[in-house]
Amino acid sequence: MLPSRPAIRRLLVPASMPRPTGPPVAPDTPVNTPARLSLISRHLAPDYPINTPYTVERLPRTIDTSLLPSSQTRRMSSQPEHPTLLIPGPIEFDDAVLQSMSHYSESHVGPGFVVTFGETLSMLRKLFQTTDPTAQPFIISGSGTLGWDLVAANLVEAGEDVLVLSSGYFSDGFADCLRVYGANVTELKAAPGTKPQLPEIEKALSEKKYKAITVTHVDTSTGVLSELKNLSALVHKVSPDTLILVDGVCSVACEEIDFDGWKLDGVVTASQKAIGCPAGLSISMFSGRAMKAFQSRKTPPSSYFASMKNWTHIMQNYEAKKPSYFATPSPQLIHALHTALTQILSRPVAERFALHKAASDRIKKAISDLGLKQVASNPNEQAHGMTAIYLPETVTQADILPKLAKKGVVFAGGIHKEIGTKYIRFGHMGVSVLDPRRGDVEKALDALENGLTECGYQKA
């Protein structure tokens, strides 16, 4: 018979208990009773403490987990059982991030929240790898799409020319947004699964002066990765006054972005993808050059809510730990973002990018071993946070997606207007690849292989 809950709580190992630095303890090594009771209590009581940024590290290595069912040992999560979400955003979220969402209600201009918001803005600079004091971060309630409006309403005036590099559905959406605000848009389109190449970009830049060029770093519809470093060098060489603006919604925090080193002028993203925070925040960084372009406008910004005129001093005040107000932010989402960024920056960002690449390579090899092809056919143009997978001719989305769901895995269908019914999308970002003890990737690959077999597919 187990001790009563109060008795168990008295035996809990303190949250501050130091982690051993020696080798892991063998399963047959005797473990003291308080440690065993600590393990049990963490599954009886939902309010166990968090003692590191990563929930997988809550259990001291001296605790024997061999008595637990294997699924519990793998996940170590306080979240209710649910299908593993492996779409290209929203992604699975770490427990600590979700628990930050339950922060008590507080004033958005109160001292506690002001400090949290200010720290969050400062951490964005580290994530984007910028030390330029004239660069400006923005965190505004909204989705990634709001980033397009920030660009179109503030950095481009009606009638100005913009070159849009189109590599899929979301690149086309960026172009549509710019047109709404009156920009004169020229699109360089590529076939599905590819991207515009540097020679044709150079030719376009040589033929006309563009106020800005936009590039979707990872187009979520195709999994195509656009290279930024050489693109930026080309633009600065051929058309140095052209602003370089990046849609990084599906790339920030899983693909390298060296904002200063690559001389980018703007990157817009969102909270719910590789950053690992629930949806609801538009996140962006703009260079000092971009801010000067905004300040030099001949006409007022063509949006009210998305106006940098209304938001810039708000962001600057918050980062300086001063209360400010234009429109009410979401304190709970800001707390969650603060936790997510704290986790991200607890290790070098280069290590994070390398881990995503390693997981992506493993996933893409497994897909190839199944005899399947990717929408992004060139290995140098394949994203590391998602994979778009062509289905066998005998299998449809309607066949495979429900079978995956029955196995507890959620993939996304294709959305590119030319090939949408022919492929599915596998998102592999954040904790699903950074916390291998979850087993999300293995579960997904097993479900895909077995699901295809149930659909009658056999590798040639």
From TrEMBL:
It comes from the Eukaryota. One of its GO terms (molecular function) is alanine-glyoxylate transaminase activity. Residues 140-416 form the Aminotransferase class V domain. Keywords: Aminotransferase, Pyridoxal phosphate, Transferase. Transmembrane segments: none annotated. Its EC number is 2.6.1.44. InterPro entries: Aminotrans_V_dom, PyrdxlP-dep_Trfase, PyrdxlP-dep_Trfase_major, PyrdxlP-dep_Trfase_small. Gene3D superfamilies: Aspartate Aminotransferase, domain 1 (3.90.1150.10), Type I PLP-dependent aspartate aminotransferase-like (Major domain) (3.40.640.10). Pfam families: Aminotran_5 (PF00266). Its cofactor is pyridoxal 5'-phosphate. GO terms for cellular component: peroxisome. Signal peptide: none annotated. GO terms for biological process: glycine biosynthetic process, by transamination of glyoxylate. Belongs to the class-V pyridoxal-phosphate-dependent aminotransferase family. This is alanine--glyoxylate transaminase.
